[in-house]
Queue: 3 jobs
Job 1
Amino acid sequence: MTNVEKIKQTEAYVHNQLSGEASGHDWWHIYRVTKLAKTIASVEGADVFICEMAALLHDIADEKLNESEEAGLKKVESWLQRIEVEEASMKHIMEIIASMSFKGGGQPPMKTVEGQVVQDADRLDALGAIGIARTFAFGGAKGNIMYDPSIKPRRDMSKEEYQKRDNTAINHFYEKLLKLKGLMNTPYGKQLAEDRHLYMEQFLNQFYKEWEGER
């Protein structure tokens, strides 16, 4: 099986697994992240096959969508074995997926340029107009309120505290989204993050004006 065929089969597998998922981690998130990863990989000179496969499969392993992180990673490993990805490539893809999640911040840096590319692509999809839309979609799916001025953003969260995500949608901007621009890895990823970060700041300024009933 060629790499092109492996990617095509993986696209179909992931689409089947995540289509209709309502928390913002659906197939279209995967679609956008994969396109971004391919673009950044071509600019940064990374292995496009590794980047594309890791981008396609990264949320199959997400512990928010599995009974545990270990169970999710096992699912990815089983798929890679099923389509006969060579051992070195499989190890590289698995390492990227196991290491790329935000988890409240403070995670060690990605070890390879391919990991940096895929992490940047995933973080870019949490920024800008799409990032805003996904934040409110996720909050609604989890039953969180939109905003309460008396509930302040949390600081220095543990992984467990971050994963509870039992806070307001607006606070998520301060707990994660506005931090991402400074956490980008690649030069091109940093460049793409600038406009998306600015758009979120403009949105928040407008949100607070409208919240107070200003014209």
Job 2
Amino acid sequence: MTIVVKTARFVAENRESGCSWTTIAATDLTAARVAKMSTLDAAHVDVVLVMLGVPDVLLATSATAWGANLEKVVEHLRVHATPNCRFVFAGIPPMGDFRPIPPLARKMLMLQIDRLNCVTDELASRASDVSFVPFPDWRVGDMYVQDVFSWRSLHEMWARVLAAATLRVLNDMNPHQLESGSESLGAS
């Protein structure tokens, strides 16, 4: 997906400075797998954007395991990050809306997404350096964005919401806390 690239572009445009990023991506990237990665490095990173959850929804990861793994990810990154690094967790998208699926399967997906998003939001409420950004409402009246626009439009809308959250975090940081004139965005 192009969401991270678009998010970085919107951040750079808004701040009128450079924005570099590193992406760790895989179709089977669960929170447990990321929590075990020894190669996570947030040195010289001002904001880490974490976009996890789709595989965890599909694997029915428990809310307890999800929360514990997210906390491990944040703790590991804190050890390897600049002292004032901030963490922005993206909400899990409403996957049940993206493709026609049977009503019971859709309900199960949406309940799992809500459970995991609630845990992530709770983590953000407890930690001053963690923010949670829910997936934006993508409905236009009774229609979905996909009916009116395109997947490209959906990705751009999501990136704008993530960029706005990233900019809020960056703007809350004191200017002298930022490493340099260009922001650095880490993304999972």
Job 3
Amino acid sequence: MMIQAVHVPESAEAVAVHSARGGQIMGGGTVVMPLVSGGTATGSELISLRRAGLAGIEVRDGVARIGAAAPLSSVEEHPGLGFLRPAVRTIASPTIRNLATVGGNLFVAQPYGDLAVCLLALDALCEIAGPGGRRDAPVADVLASGVAAGEFVTAVVVALPEPGTWYYHKAMRRKLNSASIVTVASVTRTEDGVVTSTRIALGGVAPRPVRAVSAERLLAGRPLSPEVLTEAGEAARSDTAPFDDAYASAWYRARVLPVHLRRAFTG
């Protein structure tokens, strides 16, 4: 479909007005513009979030609120979000990170969207605006079902993980700037060497980021030993739906999942 108009509203309320008319929301354009160039955009109007005031990042009292239009580079550079820096640096190139946004990363197809995997592990909350007003929804629901017509994510809110509880590992073809073969992100707490709580998210092994609930159950009350972690990785296969693409086959992704889940925790 040919794009006939581009709107650059200056508030979330104005974005909602245009979105209710069926316009296509655009953050940094790294997802939408290839669709426009290929003639597969779903609407005739684009709504840019560039001036909508949705790019701020605030970290206070152990909670971070990240605007949906914040570029990934802002997350990477923010002193209060240092735990996410290694993960963000595995995403694309610096040029893309200067454009791609936090909100857009929620809707990009796997094997991309590594920040979305992190937000799932962090049990983030999405703030959503639309014709019916504002609402909150768990990031898991947004990743699974998207948002209703005319709605858009305005921010994500996460509780910062306690020191020593955050784990991240990404397997890819190149050291940097490559899509995921397997991505593992987790907030896991231990006491006396035994797991007391864990939340594990996986990327690259299903069409969207998924929770490794089978691995979580297996780890409960057990040590993070290589043997137990290998068992957990094997159990996690039942939570995935791997696929073939130019980076890896579905068979290979499933085969190496236990290895990379173990590496996420042991380095």
